[in-house]
Amino acid sequence: VQVAESGGGLVQAGGSLRLSCVASGDIYNVHAVGWYRQAPGGQREYVARVAHAEKPDYADSVKGRFTISYDAAKHTLDLQMASLRDEDTATYYCFQFILTNGGVLAQHWGQGTQVTVSS
Description:
Elements (H helix, E strand, L loop, with lengths): L1 E5 L2 E4 L4 E8 L4 E10 L5 E8 L5 E2 L7 E6 L4 E6 L8 E10 L5 E5 L3 E6 L1
Parallel strand pairs: 2-11
Antiparallel strand pairs: 1-3, 3-8, 4-5, 4-9, 5-6, 7-8, 9-10, 9-11
């Protein structure tokens, strides 16, 4: 199983950006997906997640500004980010909890995509 993010870049404060995360390989089902981020010199921070039959959940710092969505048919997770702030600058990592056809359930991470917000 492989997970890859895309969509990062440089954006001005107040702007918007959309990140995507696609999983491929031996996938039977996906149980939960989400995003974390890590700022330079900081620890990895929870951003958002969505699981089967549950409402999306967001960190307080992004609530009302970020929207997480998942297309199960395409194994694609998106993070729509709006009203971006300097403090949103970080490397964003997606994860997908994937059950393979072989019955193995594991959390798979992408390589990260950089988001830089300039003021």
